[in-house]
Amino acid sequence: MTDKKRILIVEDDEDIRMVEEAYLGAAGFDTCPASNAAETEHLLKTEHFDLILLDVMLPGKSSSRASMRISDSMSASRKSSRVDSRRRSGSRICAS
Amino acid sequence: MDGILCVLALIVVSRMFTQKLTGDVMKPLHALTDGANRIRENNLTEAITYSGAREFEMVCDTFNDMQQHILSEQEKNQKYEKARTDMIAGISHDLRTPLTAVRGTLKGLLDGIASTPQQQERFLQTAYRRTGDMDVLLNQLFYLSKMESGNLPLEMQTIDLADFIWNYANAKHDQLRDGSEELTVACGGIDAQVSVDPDQLYRIFDNLIENSRKYAQADPLRMKIELCHCPNGVTVTVSDNGVGVPDEKLPYIFDEFYRADESRNQKEGNGLGLYIVKHLIEAMGGSVRAESENGLAVLLELPLAHEGEGAL
Q: How many CA atoms are closer than 13 Å to the CA of B209, on its beta-carbon side?
């Protein structure tokens, strides 16, 4: 069992996801990519993550609804969450 | 004594007439003043209701018409402003997304994040490809601005549409991805002489084919260009076997910067292609509509050319 912290990267732009994975991987984190809300929800049900980087503008589902559900499911298991709005096109929610 | 009574009677009658006349004039004037005050307070929905002298009724009706005109202009301006805002938001987003990817990959290279030669190559390729996306968008914006400002005169010629479609499909054949993309033509021996600008018709087909390639999400992607007669001339249907567009979004796909994918991230593309198609086909006297059943079908309707029209 690795003791690396796990980060779920939710980003539908493949190129931006690639850069994020490279940076976080180089910083010593274990990353897991997801490109849409359905995939994210499935991963959250089946795997454990220490942090989510979430692009709020996601295809396939109302982004605000998806982020609320994800945020809810994170806060159910973790007690804190914060919103980072330094995002290129929308907010990014990071929960830890 | 009789004389005095007559004078008094005349004065009384005169005053009565004057009062009535003043009332008749003042009533519509008050109504008009109230109407003008309502307009000043930006209340353009309440019309003047006056019935009386025909001349004043006409003035009030004209006032109401003017008010209605101002209201419809205001609504038009609001829609235009919203379209402008949406357009700026669309351009900002569609330039920012590839720019973020370019900056990210280049910064990654500078920071030494891409450590292997393969990864460095991939980062560089990504940056190069995404600058291409920006280039396409800027070219389309430039084209759009020329088109909307009337600086893109059409050079109309009478052409055989079936021949044009066959030539187009042959020219495109080499650009299709082997095995995963297919373009078929069905012209059924139709003789259709239409008056169009061939360069712009080529662009229309290009935009429709590119639209299918970007949004159809079908593998293999099967695209078809079909020609048939219709009551108003001929219809060219450009269709694919993709996911199509939900019915509720279908009426908007020809709007400027509209994309059925609200996140605007699902695929490359900028929501200008179909808008340009609509603008061009209408400028050439045709019309366009879309249907979504087992994929997206865009139907271009063109009138047949009259003899000698636009011929070189």
A: 23
Are the beta carbons of A26 and B113 separated by less than 8 Å?
A: yes
- Tell me if chain B has a CB within 8 Å of the CB of A28: no
pLDDT on residue B115: 84
Closest alpha carbon to A55 in B96, B124, B89, B108 = B96
Taking the alpha carbons at both ends of chain B, their separation in whole angstroms is 100
Q: What ipTM, to 2 d.p.?
A: 0.71
Indicate the range of A37-41, B38-42, B220-224 predicted with least confidence: A37-41
Nearest to B239 by CA among B173, B290, B204, B284: B290
Answer yes or no: is pLDDT of B279 > 70.
yes
Q: What is the pTM of this model?
A: 0.61
Which of B96, B107, B130 shows the shortest C-beta gap to A15?
B130
Token duo for residue A58: 């996601």
For residue B101, give the nearest of A16, A58, A89 by CB distance.
A16
The encoded tokens of residue B246 equal 């939900």
Residue pair B204/B172 in contact by the 8 Å Cβ criterion: no
The residue type of B280 is L
pLDDT at residue A73, rounded to an integer: 65
Q: Provide mean pLDDT across the span B188-213.
A: 92
Q: How distant is the Cα of A10 from the closest Cα of chain B, in angstroms? A: 13
The predicted model gives B46-68 an average pLDDT of 90
Between CA B246 and CA B255, with CA B252 as vertex, the angle to 5 degrees is 145
Q: Residue A32 to residues A11, A27, B136, B198, B216: CA-CA distances in angstroms?
A: 11, 14, 32, 50, 27
On the question of pLDDT at A95 being above 70, the answer is: no
The letter for the amino acid at B151 is N
pLDDT band at B240, cuts 50/70/90? very high
